[in-house]
Design brief:
The chain is built from 3 helices and 12 strands, in the order αααββββββββββββ. The chain is of the alpha+beta class. The protein has a single domain, classed as YmcC-like fold (Beta Barrel), CATH 2.40.360.10. The two termini are about 30 Å apart.
Length: about 220
């Protein structure tokens, strides 16, 4: 999908959602942030570091939710929350790729290598996890032959005893750390989540699939 088309669609959708000048300004700034990221990606560099393009000031000025995602190879970028209701939150990147999160956990992706097509789980909410919780999880992947394959995991979520502090784009956040271990007949996955007092997952390292491995995900707005 071409960038110009993405901007036109996003701009039209956002304007139709609200007549508030404050809302409009924030969303237009978000589009500009995505555009700056894409322009930087098109420059003849080996690997763009979005941290050098999107500053804390730009994040604060936008006044909307912003997501940072980094692959294991160091490639990274920012995404903004896609307007509308759905199952979980869908985040849109400048290249048209999307990530859908539910309670901060990856539920699905589109436009990425070997996409995660869907995920279901009986995991309790963050506030319900006192020490450890056990549950099952089913994850569906897009295979190399363009077919969907599902795996079922037995999982344990462990809550750390003490709170800690992490810094995201120059801003410290008080968080609670959770470690998720999931096992199938052939695989062992370990995901880490840092959750703030409002149950927002501020930082996580989550398994995407065999092609991309783990993703680092951060919520940037205060």
């Amino acid at each position: 999908m071409k960038w110009g088309f993405i901007v036109i669609v996003a701009f039209t959708t956002l304007i139709s959602c609200s007549n508030s000048s404050e809302f409009e300004t924030g969303e237009i700034k978000a589009i500009k942030m995505l555009r700056e990221t894409l322009i930087a990606r098109n420059t003849p560099t080996i690997l763009l570091d979005t941290r050098k393009v999107i500053t804390r000031k730009k994040i604060d000025d936008a006044k909307i939710p912003v997501l940072f995602v980094e692959l294991e190879n160091g490639q990274n970028g920012t995404l903004t929350l896609y307007p509308g209701e759905g199952v979980g939150e869908t985040w849109l990147g400048a290249d048209g790729a999307t990530i859908t999160l539910h309670n901060g956990r990856i539920k699905a992706t589109r436009g990425m290598r070997r996409d995660l097509m869907g995920s279901t789980s009986s995991v309790p909410t963050w506030s319900e996890i006192k020490n450890t919780s056990e549950y099952s999880r089913q994850i569906s992947y897009l295979g190399g032959d363009n077919q969907t394959y599902s795996k079922t995991f037995s999982c344990t979520m462990r809550k750390h005893n003490k709170q800690t502090s992490i810094t995201i784009f120059d801003v410290p956040f008080d968080v609670q750390e959770y470690v998720e271990t999931c096992m199938s007949n052939t695989d062992i996955l370990e995901n880490t989540y840092f959750v703030d007092p409002k149950n927002v997952v501020r930082r996580s390292k989550q398994y995407h699939g065999p092609a991309l491995g783990y993703l680092l995900i951060e919520r940037l707005e205060r």
